[in-house]
Amino acid sequence: MTTASKITLVRVVMIPIFMVLLLLGYRWAALAVFILASVTDFVDGYVARHYNQVSDFGKFLDPLADKLLVTACMLIFTEWGRMPSWAVMIVLAREFAVTGLRLVAVGNGRVIAAGWSGKVKTFSTMVGLCVMMAFPGYVWLDWAVTAVITVTTLYSGVEYFVKNWDVIRP
């Protein structure tokens, strides 16, 4: 197993720790774990590319770890009434749709790399969720973060399909 994949696995292990801390009300500790987990997303990618450790396992696990971390946080905020379920559904629908598109592409011998808008979506989502954790009690802030997450999610999802429409075109 590569070092990059080990870093990704550490991120996966951090998810339940983050959830327990946030649910028990240890907001700052949860925020620290979330930030550390988010940083490992960039570190494992750097290590994989810089040290030629790109692997199929890493290609599978890295985006899964990102989705699990972000979804865990959004579900807690939904449970607490700080994020509407329709926004979380948009995020999940985009993830399933893009994953499906990638699976169809692979079946046709093509790999769809992560696009710039997808990276912006991931970054803005992680930063936005950190802001929500750091500043609870501001409804306008929750809505602003939800709007940014929703818009970047929709934009990146549409971009993936527009750029790769030939993969599924009848």
Automatic annotation (TrEMBL):
It is a multi-pass membrane protein. Pfam families: CDP-OH_P_transf. The keyword Zinc does not apply. It is an enzyme of class 2 (transferase). One of its GO terms (cellular component) is membrane. Keywords: Lipid biosynthesis, Lipid metabolism, Membrane, Phospholipid biosynthesis, Phospholipid metabolism, Transferase, Transmembrane, Transmembrane helix. Its EC number is 2.7.8.5. This protein catalyzes the committed step to the synthesis of the acidic phospholipids. It catalyses: a CDP-1,2-diacyl-sn-glycerol + sn-glycerol 3-phosphate = a 1,2-diacyl-sn-glycero-3-phospho-(1'-sn-glycero-3'-phosphate) + CMP + H(+). Pathway: Phospholipid metabolism; phosphatidylglycerol biosynthesis; phosphatidylglycerol from CDP-diacylglycerol: step 1/2. This is CDP-diacylglycerol--glycerol-3-phosphate 3-phosphatidyltransferase. Its main location: membrane. It is found in: Membrane.
